[in-house]
Amino acid sequence: MQESRKAVGRPFPESPVPEAMGRLLTLLEKRVGADAMDRVWVFPPLVRGRKEWGLVAVSCLTEDPSQRTLVTGRYAAEMTGKGVLFQPEFMSEGSAPPDRLRPVMDGVVRRSDLQLGVPRETEIGGDVDKYQALLGEYGWGDRSADQAIH
Q1: Angle formed by the axes of helices 20-32 and 128-137, to 10°?
Q2: To which H or E segment does residue 103 belong?
Q3: Distance between alpha carbon 24 and the CA centroid of its chain, in Å?
Q4: Which of 32, 75, 100, 136 could bridge across to 141 with cysteines, CB 3.0–4.6 Å?
C-alpha cells in the first residue's frame, strides 16, 4: 500500500519524511475523532537535514457552541539508515471561543523563534469526509498504510 502515499501527499516537497504529517493527522483523528473537529491548522514542518518537526492544532466542537477545545499534535521524525523514526506528542491546550482561535494561531507564528510558516487552515465542521480529503492531500488516505511508520 506504499503506492497511495508516494507523490500524492507532497505539500512539503523539501520534507525528508513526507509521510510524517499524514501519520500525525491520522493519530489526531484516532485521538479526537474527525466528527468532533471544527478546524485544523497544519503548520509547515521545520526541516534540518534528514530530520523534521511538525505541528498541527485542532479546534474541537463541544456541547457549548460558544466554546471550542484546542488539541495540538506535534512530531519529530527522522529518516535513518534503518527507516523512519517517528515520535508524536499530543496536548490538550484548553478552551476558547471559536473566534479567538485564528488570532491565537497568528500569534503562534509571530511569537515563534523557530520561524514557523503560516499554517494552512481547513474547516472540517465535524464532517468525516472533509477530514478524509485532508488526509488524502497529505498522502495518507489509505488507512492500511497506518502501519508504515514506527
Answers
A1: 160
A2: helix 98-111
A3: 5
A4: 136
